[in-house]
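Project standup — Tuesday

K.O.: blocked on the structure for the chain from last sprint. Re-posting the sequence here as requested.
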Amino acid sequence: MELTSLLLYITIFFSVLLVLILFSDGDLTLMLVERFGKRLSSVKGQVYWIVGASSGIGEYLAYELVANGAKVVLSGRRENELQKVKTQCLLIGKKAGLSETDILLLPVDVTKLELHQQYFDAVLQHFGTLDVLVNNAGRSQRAEWMNIDIRVDKDLFDGNVFGLLNLSRIVMPHFLSKKRGQIAVTSSVCGKVGAPCSASYNATKHALHGYFETLRAELTCRGVSVTMLCPGPVFSDLLSACATDTYGQKLGSTMTKKDRRMSTERCARLCAIAIVNQLDEAWISINPVLLSLYVSQYAPSLFRSFNGRIGARVAMSLRDSRNDLVNSCKKDIQGEKSD
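H.V.: unblocked you, prediction finished:
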């Protein structure tokens, strides 16, 4: 009787857990702090440097922050796009009491490592301090593993990993000197699992976890926190500059309203909540991607067995939700049938 009761309680627990996951768009800790954690208004007066703020998650994260009174540094390579973001930030931030001096436009190319100290000096000269560095710059990819030019791998690592890593190392002494600071890193669901036809991109996101998880381990009791953000499919313009298997080539695709993706606004809000509450890691995605992430972490062999059965093309369609993007890789992936 006691064993039967125990099994019943376990069944009920896991059933409730499954329902919570299926009706969530973030991991359970993130959903908890969204409801009961620190409010976004706590960012008021703090200085955030968003690297990769010209579009997508970085752009809308800037809007969330200025709406709550944070001062922001907007960085990226596309100065014209950054200017549009700054204009919108001024309109939104005005209600929170911000002025033009509270929003700094700072064009940055993360691959130019020799300029990183100069970039940071410009931030300190303008604001006198920095509270949070948001490493959001990066490019995605659609390419079959065996056909990728090694120069593509190196190029993506330069922009997605080494540039962010070097910039963080330049900022760290400032954080340590005042015994307070935070580094937020936009990884991806692909930083937790190996999604097909994005090998170089996946590798860069896994590398970010390796570098910054190690940093967190070394920062124990030193006042500096690290937050890894792992979004799934999100509406943005990342497909336009998306890498392929050919060096220097861009996919040049765009997302459509029919795509199954999280809205940029919702993703940015959850990112802001994760940062403000200093979560170590946050999973942000619609289902079934979110559920598959849970399975991959807690039943990895089962997850890989399932992926092996459904095939790479079906796994790709869960992420991209469109045949034209799935077909951007060769049609017969590892001998699979073409659609």
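K.O.: great, moving the ticket to review. The first helix runs from residue 2 to 22. Residues 331-339 have pLDDT under 50 and may be disordered.
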